[in-house]
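protien #1 (seq + structre)
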Amino acid sequence: MPDLAEIDVIPHSARAIPAHKVLALYQAQGWWPERTAEQVTTALDRGPAVAAWHGDRLVGFARTVTDGVLRAYLEDVVVDPDFRNAGLGRALVAAILDLLTPIPVVSLFCSTDLVRFYEASGFHPTKQVVLHRT
C-alpha cells in the first residue's frame, strides 16, 4: 500500500495538471472515453481542481464546477487503482473542499456504494432527485 507521505496533493493553480494525465486516470477507471484533451484543459481552466502527485505521476484528481460564491459541485474524484485504499480519495476531497471554504453549499452525486465515503467528509443524502438532460 502506498504511503501518503510520498504523495503531494496540490491545487491546479499551483502545479498545472496535464490533460493527457487526467485522461489516463479516467481510462483506468473506465470513465468518459469520449472526453478529449481540449475539453479537459478547458474544464481545468474554469474551475478549482486538485491533483495528487507521486513524483511526476498523477495518481489522483478532483475538480469542481462553481459560481465561486453560492454553489459548487464536486466532480470527477478519481484515484489510480495502484493507490487506492490508502486515504488518497479522502485527501483529495479535503483539499478541494479547502479551496471551496467560502462557498456555503457543495453538492455531488455518486453511486450508492460511495455514500459512506462522502459522508465521512461531511456530505449527506438529500431528498432531491438528480435529473440529467443529455
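ok now protien #2
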Amino acid sequence: MTQTSQTLRPTLDLDFVRGQFPAFSSAALQGQMFFENAGGSYTCKPVIDRLFRFYHERKVQPYAPYEASRLGGAEMDEARARLAALMGVETDELSFGPSTSANTFVLSNAVRMWLEGKNAAIVVTNQDHEANSGVWRRLADEGIEVREWRIDPQTGHLDPAALAPLLADGKVKLVCFPHCSNIVAEINPVAEICAMARAAGAFTCVDGVSYAPHGFPDMAELGADVYLFSAYKTYGPHQGIMVLRRGIGAELPNQAHFFNGDVLYKRFTPAGPDHAQVAACAGMADYVDALYAHHFGAAAASPVQRNTAVHGLMRDHEIALTAPLLDYLAARNDLRLIGPRQAARRAPTLAVALDRPALPVATALAGHGIMAGGGDFYGVRPLGALGVDLEKGVLRLSFVHYTTKAEVDHLIGALDHVLKA
C-alpha cells in the first residue's frame, strides 16, 4: 500500500471502494456522476445483500422460536450491537427509527414532558436543517423558553463564544446543534460545545446527518448526549439512527408502550421497527470492516479503532478532492461560495448562491452527466440568515469518499460550460 506523507495512513483504494457499490457497475448509471450525496448516498453491497436475504429468508415476525424468526431477530440484534460498538457506546444506547426527522420529533415530545412547568430553556441554532430546529422551536408554544444561537450572517460560522452568554444563567437544559450544516458545511467543534453545555448543566443533541457520511462518530471523543444520523446517507437503508446515552435516556419520559419503558433502545421508538431495514444496517458495519481489512490488514483492532482508521481514510481523500473545487468556486465572481474556504474545515458539501435560480443550473448540469440539486434543502433558516434569495436557492454539490478526481475535474468543466451560458 502507498502511504500519504502527511498522515502515514494508506491511500484510499478507490477501485476497491467502488467495487463495494453496485451503482458503479449499473448500466443505468454509466456516464452519470453523483454530486448530490448530501441528499442520500449510494448503498453498499453488504447492505443490499443483507436486505435481499432478509426478504427472501427471514421475512417473518422476529424473535419467535422457529428458525427463520430466530435468525431474523439475531440479525436485527447484530446490527444494533455492531454499529454501537463502532461508535463506542453500549448496545442499548442505539435506537432505530423510520427517519431522523421522526426520531427528533419523538425526542422533542419527551423533552416537552420533561420540562413542562419548569423554569427552563433550550438552545437551538439557525444553522440547522429544519429537522433539528423546527421541532425544538415549537416547544415555545408549551411555555419552554427557546434561545437562538445565531450564525455569522456573512460566513455562516457558529461561534462557540456566542453560546456562552446563552448558558450563563443556568436555565438551559438542552443545546441542539449540528455536527455540520447541510448548507454551511463547516465542521463544528462538537467536543468543545458539548463540554461547555455539560459545565452549564445542559444536555446536548447533535444532528450528525450531514457529517456521518464522512465517518461514523466516536461518541466518547465527542461527548454528545444524543447523536442523530440517517442510514440512507451512510450507505445503508432508509432508517434514522439515534445514539442516546444512558444519562439523558433515563431522565426523559418513556415515549413507547408502557411495557417497553425499561428498555433504553425502545423508550423513544413508539413505532414498531422495520425488521428488514434494521437487519440490513449491519451491512454498514460490514463495509467499515471490509475497508479496514483491505487497507490495514488483519492486525487486531477494536471496533472503535477500526472506525477511526476508516474515518481517517475517508477524510484524507475527501479533503484532497475538495480543495481544487473550492479554489475554482472561490475564483469566480458570479457566485457566492457558502462556508469555509479550507477543505479540512468542512464536509465536501458545497452550496453556492448564484446570480440566477439554482434549479435550472442543476438541470443544465444533468445534461453533462452531473447529478446535483438546486433549492433550499430544508435549510431555510441558514439561507435566510445568510441573506440568500430563497426564490433562487443554492446549487449544492456534495460528494463522499467514493468520488474520484476525474469526476471532480469533469464537474469543474461542466460548471465552466453551464455558468457561461
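Residues 60 and 66 are 10 Å apart (CA to CA).
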